[in-house]
Design goal:
The protein is α/β, with parallel strands linked by helices and 237 residues long. The protein contains ten helices and ten strands. It is 38% helix and 18% strand.
Length: 237
């Protein structure tokens, strides 16, 4: 069977083109997939939700959930903290489950549920994600969480780095995937600093999250799957 990889950010294709027969890797580096991965890595259960309306009844069913998130860059009323991997990693009580809400990334996870498998990736685990794909999945879509219709630079970078490794393992790049790989190949991780998302963190005095992302590049050997409305570490290599 021919192995293929495509980079995309247009979520309307998830049902039309990328449903049955495809594996989706959801990427929202700044910040929801980084936060989700960090939550699970620190021993928490993590439940991404597509909307504030979905968060409320879920919070009523869970035991003392930690409400983490943002909408339009602002923490919703009643939430415990912003969509911040730094704040979450520092929170001492890991027994409290996390309900995670973001403008784009958590919605993407729910929109991708019709795919055969949905993974959660960021710069922290991009190499591990590639190794897992090579062992299990021949048809892969690396899907960035577009924000206001834009494919943000940090998500392009993460997708490009994964795609480049997959191409080296024999995957055929489809569509504009080759062009995205060329744009980001060989660049350092701080090349994402010129993007709109990173500038937003700088302007809103949230550079600690930006520093966290830059300092925790490819530091995890774990992959994470979105299944049964929860992000879970995968058990098989």
């Amino acid at each position: 069977m021919k192995k293929t990889v495509v980079i995309d950010c247009f979520h309307d294709k998830l049902d039309a083109e990328y449903a049955c027969g495809h594996t989706i890797v959801a990427v929202d580096v700044i910040r929801s997939t980084t936060t989700a991965v960090t939550a699970v890595e620190t021993g928490r259960r993590c439940f991404p939700v597509p909307s504030l309306e979905a968060a409320v009844p879920l919070a009523a069913r869970l035991d003392r959930p930690l409400l983490v998130g943002e909408l339009g860059g602002y923490m919703p009323f009643g939430f415990d903290m912003n969509n911040s991997p730094v704040r979450l990693a520092a929170f001492p009580d890991t027994s409290r489950p996390v309900i995670l809400l973001s403008t784009s990334g958590t919605r993407l996870l729910h929109e991708a549920r019709s795919a055969d498998k949905v993974y959660v990736a960021c710069l922290r685990n991009f190499s591990a994600q590639v190794r897992h794909i090579c062992n299990h999945h021949p048809t892969v879509v690396l899907m960035g969480a577009s924000t206001r219709g834009e494919f943000r630079e940090e998500d392009q970078m993460c997708c490009a780095w994964m795609a480049e490794l997959l191409v080296a393992e024999g995957y055929l790049p489809l569509g504009t995937t080759g062009d995205v790989i060329k744009r980001w190949s060989g660049l350092p991780v701080d090349a994402l600093l010129g993007g709109r998302s990173s500038r937003y963190l700088q302007l809103t005095d949230q550079t600690d999250d930006l520093d966290f992302i830059l300092e925790h590049c490819d530091d995890l050997k774990t992959t994470f799957v979105f299944a049964d409305a929860e992000v879970k570490a995968t058990s098989d290599p």
